[in-house]
Amino acid sequence: MKIRVEFFATFREIFQAKEREITLREGSTIEDVLDALCNSENLRQEIFDNNGLKPYLIILKNDRHIQFQQGLKTEVQEGDNIAIFPLLDGG
Fold first, then answer.
1. Pick from 8, 57, 13: which is nearest to 31 by CA?
2. Lesser CB count within 10 Å: N end or C end of the chain?
3. What residues are paired with 19 via a beta bridge?
4. Which residues contact residue 28 at a Cβ distance below 8 angstroms, ignoring those fewer than 6 apart?
5. Biggest alpha carbon distance in the chain?
6. Would the pTM count as exceeding 0.85?
7. What is the pLDDT of residues 2-34, one digit of tens each?
8. What is the spatial order of strands in the sheet that 64-65 belongs to?
9. How far is Cα 4 from Cα 89, in angstroms, rounded to an integer?
10. Domains of the chain by start residue, with CATH
11. CA 88: distance to chain centroid?
């Protein structure tokens, strides 16, 4: 199945893309999406710390934050749109 991943702010530079389409097997989760994207130790360090996802990271599945679903265990389906961006702070 194909999933579209969009990157925002600094993640566009980190992943050197505005968006990517990835192919995963049925039953895949957000964790599988991130594993597929983070194909180097440097990329993994941008997303994960010792406690899991870095606290400033926001991941949406179809415009809904994964923390209000099943977190990293949230299943993805054909055609889903995943958005990854840092917590924005402004004033």
1. 57
2. C
3. 6
4. 1, 3, 75, 76
5. 42
6. yes
7. 999 999 999 999 999 999 999 999 999 999 999
8. 19-23, 2-7, 81-86, 57-61, 64-65
9. 26
10. 2-86 (3.10.20.30)
11. 16
